[in-house]
Structure of 6-carboxy-5,6,7,8-tetrahydropterin synthase:
Amino acid sequence: MKATKEKCVADGQVTVAQSFGFSASHELRQLPAGHKCRRNHGHNYTVTASALVHDEARGDLSPLGDYLAATFDHRLLNEQVTFHPTSELLVVHLAEWFRDNMESAMPITLVEMVVSETATTSARYDGVTGEITISKTFTTSHGGVTLVLGADGLDEVGFITDFGDLKPFGAYLQAPDADAGLRAAGPALVADLAGWFVDNIEPKIRGRLVSVRVGSGATTGLWERGDAS
Ligand SMILES: Nc1nc2c(c(=O)[nH]1)N=C([C@H](O)[C@H](O)COP(=O)(O)OP(=O)(O)OP(=O)(O)O)CN2
């Protein structure tokens, strides 16, 4: 298992973020027959926890890494948990575990928990609001485009929306119009991409676009949904 640690001090408050990797397989057995993720398959998971540390000397999040290593590493997740092992339900489980086992034992407060099945997909639990979001990054020849989606709770299998439902957006990014926009990378780019997603993909899925981020070398752009849109 790999682990990394980062410390940030802002407004006199110390936030520590620690990442832990583990390898595991799972079967998403509540998906329809024929969905590839129903079958046994594996991921190199990364879990990142960020916490406010009220006493710097006692801000070590490694007990989470120990729990992940002992409970999930090189195991079939279905045998280790009683819920459907999607990224969303896993992140909720880990946030609850953190609260029950770490917040009660040391002076820290969870800020966020992120579970990544792959380098381009993740689920995030917000420690302040309890909100769950998912994120998917598409790689283009001009940089990465990251979508964040939320929803009113999870669906019956434990998804906000299947990452697979977002694939048409990846296809759109390769189309000539979007490709030209990405190459020009003007200020309207992220709003155009968000508008296309909202008009063409959102009506067909249950997730709601929260933000779009484009990072193309020197140019970055962020669109965030306003309350009224
Ligand atoms: N909202 C969620 N959607 C999906 C989850 C999940 O946990 N939450 N999990 C899966 C599967 O585990 C699947 O293995 C990952 O699927 P996908 O993103 O499609 O990843 P791939 O590497 O298989 O993508 P390709 O682009 O097809 O290579 C599915 N969805």
User: Anything to note?
Assistant: The first strand starts at residue 3 and ends at 10. The chain has two domains: 1-127, 131-229. The CA atoms of residues 147 and 212 lie 5 Å apart. The longest helix spans residues 87-103.
